[in-house]
Write a structure and sequence with these properties.
The protein is mainly α. It has two domains: 81 residues, no CATH class; 224 residues, Hypothetical protein af1432. It is 56% helix and 6% strand. The protein is built from 13 helices and four strands. The N and C termini lie far apart (50 Å). The structure holds fe (ii) ion (FE2) (2 copies). One fe (ii) ion binds next to loops.
């Protein structure tokens, strides 16, 4: 009987699992986490260090796994569950990452996209209703330089900015958030070595890196289930309002306001996720390197937001 893959990002929080979890080493299934364990604190950190995207369960325990995930999510979204905001955020952040990974691996699957889209609107609600959640997101370190973790953080910052900018249309915020979650889809297609800061790429590597918005948008352009705003964000999130971005060198009046917000948030989280800077250092670098390239009020709001 073959084991079923599950996403590591769906295992979060202090709820004990009632199924065994295996990892695969040299084609052998090794029991890694036992029934009765949970995934917070040190165990979660150790798991992240392993950089595993998938682990495995026995097929006969699939329904136990599914109801664990369901219980976890409902508890995390329930404002009255009595759980602390950090645990709730950890579970929800993990679920959002898992939604992103699913679309990245299966962009042609309508269901994966729809799940990410529904998830994005729940995430917007969660952040809008819980001011402390935004800071709980900052406490989750992107130790494995994961693209989906970065996507969730860019969505988080974008939602924080939208709130400050008093953008109220829920449809607009949902589309912007979904675009932010999926913005770096193009890196699925290119061979960017994420262990190296972008500032240290060779000219050849930088050339390849700069193709990711076009590669990503070209890949989903013809997929009817992708919303146009999401495609625009994948294509334009590296553009800057003064025309200094790539790949088109668009100017402010050629960019949608949602694209501009995601671009600012992306510039900020990139310093943290891929250049190894603290949030305070990222804020300083934004002021040094990005003024004029993003709206100044957005840069200032992000610096305030990241201070907590
Ligand atoms: Fe990007
Ligand atoms: Fe990015």
């Amino acid at each position: 009987m073959s084991h079923l893959p599950i996403r590591v990002n769906t295992l979060r929080g202090d709820q004990k699992i009632d199924f065994d979890v295996y990892i695969k080493i040299a084609d052998k299934m090794i029991l890694y986490v036992r029934k009765g364990d949970s995934f917070e604190g040190p165990r979660l950190a150790r798991l992240k260090e392993k950089k595993l995207k998938k682990m495995f369960i026995m097929p006969e325990e699939e329904s136990l796994y599914r109801s664990y995930v369901q219980r976890n999510i409902s508890m995390a979204y329930d404002d009255k569950s009595g759980k602390d905001i950090q645990t709730r955020t950890e579970i929800i952040h993990g679920q959002q990452q898992s939604n992103v990974d699913e679309v990245f691996e299966n962009p042609e699957t309508v269901e994966a996209y729809q799940t990410a889209k529904d998830g994005a609107s729940k995430y917007v609600q969660f952040l809008m209703n819980n001011d402390a959640a935004l800071h709980s997101v900052f406490n989750l370190e992107n130790t494995d330089r994961s693209l989906s973790h970065h996507g969730v953080n860019v969505a988080t910052l974008s939602i924080g900015l939208a709130k400050r900018l008093k953008i109220e249309d829920p449809k607009v915020i949902q589309m912007m958030s979904l675009g932010a979650l999926l913005h770096d889809f193009g890196h699925q297609e290119s061979s960017w070595d994420r262990s190296k800061p972008i500032s240290q790429l060779t000219p050849e590597e930088l050339e390849i890196y700069k193709q990711h918005p076009d590669l990503g948008s070209a890949r989903v352009q013809d997929k009817k289930h992708f919303d146009q705003m999401v495609i625009n964000i994948i294509a334009q999130h590296e553009e800057c309002i003064d025309g200094s971005g790539f790949p088109r060198g668009l100017k402010e009046n050629e960019m949608d306001s949602s694209v501009i917000i995601v671009s600012t948030s992306n510039a900020f989280d990139r310093y943290v996720a891929f250049e190894g800077l603290t949030r305070a250092e990222a804020g300083k670098r934004m002021m040094l390197e990005r003024v004029g390239r993003h709206p100044l009020n957005q840069i200032k709001f992000l610096i305030e937001l990241s201070k907590g």
